[in-house]
Design goal:
With about 325 residues, the chain is α+β, with helices and mostly antiparallel strands. The chain has one domain. The chain is about 30% helix and about 20% strand. The chain has an eight-stranded mixed β-sheet, sandwiched between helices. A two-stranded antiparallel ribbon has the order 5-6. Strands 7-10 form a two-stranded parallel sheet. The relative contact order is 0.20. The structure holds 2-acetamido-2-deoxy-beta-D-glucopyranose (5 copies). Keywords: Signal.
């Protein structure tokens, strides 16, 4: 914690910060959680539903990433943002379609490469409890490619819930169950199934929201792994956010610390395994680590978890990024 004393830019004074932070923390501590839409483009709004991630006080905070990242920017959505459907893990929603074959992030998986069982199991969830969801998808369905062991096809096959709250409960139940072994599966087989990058467990969830307009944005955010800090030279997304803020200060700026920006989750060394055609975690402790973090959060209570957010003064953020990002033309040799 010593490092925090040396930060160059200060959080906004308590009185100013209280309104926006209180509002966001209220949502973070609510059953639906607080929604984050990752983007680098702050002035382009589309007319289509989009995916966001819900952060809630009792789950390790994780945002969507393709490959491991160290920072992410985007929009914090209004707590009242309309949710269209909610996946407990990455749902590959961009490849889902409605009954007429039109793109529908809340439809069925429609990708021949994903396999028929994925198409069959996708769509609306109908489970009596979050535990039933976890049990129904526990290493199921298996995708078989000729010449290789089967693998867990979770991301393509997962169904979706109507409310973020239901997906978050299912997310917890699934990770909890993942600390056990599925029937007739060795520990090594389960680690591969559960951690296969791009197909299995993700620390982040996928919440599909109605088309985002500028009025649906409550704040812009800069999130990163590790504790609160100044942006550094490798934080190019923070630099892009700064560029936007130079001409537009409509929204408050929120910094989020200690966010998981790795797949399947944090502290997982992953390696390519040619005989199983994919990237897998090498140590089962990465799966149990997520659940331990979850238990810690529950024990500490919502007030402790809320410490990952702070509001930044735009001028201080710009000053800090100016140092880190350089002055454009200075970089040209
Ligand atoms: C700031 O950006 C938002 C989103 O693009 C836009 O709605 C708003 O009009 C802009 N404000 C200014 C002052 O340019
Ligand atoms: C806005 O977003 C759309 C869809 O992602 C993209 O095709 C388009 O190029 C973007 N426009 C600008 C000006 O960035
Ligand atoms: C998927 O559903 C179809 C239609 O109900 C059925 O014919 C098919 O056997 C199912 N496939 C799998 C792999 O479950
Ligand atoms: C995944 O689990 C299944 C069922 O237990 C097993 O047959 C398969 O070999 C596992 N896949 C990998 C890549 O280990
Ligand atoms: C797995 O990780 C744990 C925790 O970091 C460590 O104690 C253990 O030695 C590791 N196991 C292997 C086989 O590397």
């Amino acid at each position: 914690m010593v490092g925090r004393a040396f930060l160059c830019f200060l959080a906004v004074s308590a009185s100013q910060a209280s309104t926006i932070l209180d509002e966001l923390l209220g949502a973070f501590k609510s059953e639906e959680g607080l929604l984050f839409r990752a983007t680098k483009d702050f002035s382009n709004f589309t007319q289509w539903p989009e995916s966001a991630c819900a952060l809630r006080w009792d789950l390790p905070p994780a945002l969507y990433v393709v490959k491991a990242e160290t920072e992410v920017t985007g929009f914090v959505l209004q707590p009242k943002m309309q949710v269209e459907c909610a996946y407990p893990v990455n749902g590959n929603s961009a490849f889902r379609k409605d009954a007429k074959g039109q793109k529908d992030l809340c439809g069925h998986t429609d990708n021949p490469a994903a396999g028929r069982e994925a198409t069959n199991m996708s769509g609306d969830c109908s489970f009596a409890s979050p535990k039933d969801y976890a049990q129904a998808y526990f290493n199921i369905p298996q995708r078989h490619l000729l010449g290789f062991d089967g693998f867990w096809n979770l991301n393509w096959a997962t169904c979706h819930f109507g409310k973020a709250q239901e997906a978050l409960e299912a997310q917890k139940a699934l990770w909890q169950l993942a600390t056990k072994l599925p029937p007739a599966t060795t520990a090594q087989q389960w680690l591969r199934n559960a951690s296969k990058v791009g197909f299995a467990l993700t620390a982040f969830n996928e919440i599909v929201v109605a088309p985002v307009h500028s009025a649906d944005v409550r704040a812009v955010f800069w999130a990163h792994s590790g504790p609160f800090r100044d942006p550094g030279p490798s934080d190019w997304k923070a630099c892009m956010l700064a560029e936007f803020l130079k001409s537009n200060n409509t929204w408050p700026v929120i910094e989020v610390s200690d966010v998981i920006l790795e797949r399947p989750t944090s502290n997982c060394e992953i390696k390519f395994d040619a005989s199983h055609l994919g990237y897998y975690a090498t140590n089962a402790s990465c799966l149990t680590g997520y659940v331990e973090a979850m238990k810690d959060l529950e024990q500490q209570g919502p007030a402790q978890a809320a410490r990952i957010f702070r509001e930044l003064e735009v001028s201080s953020f710009l000053k800090a990024t100016e140092k880190a990002c350089g002055g454009g033309s200075e970089l040209v040799v």
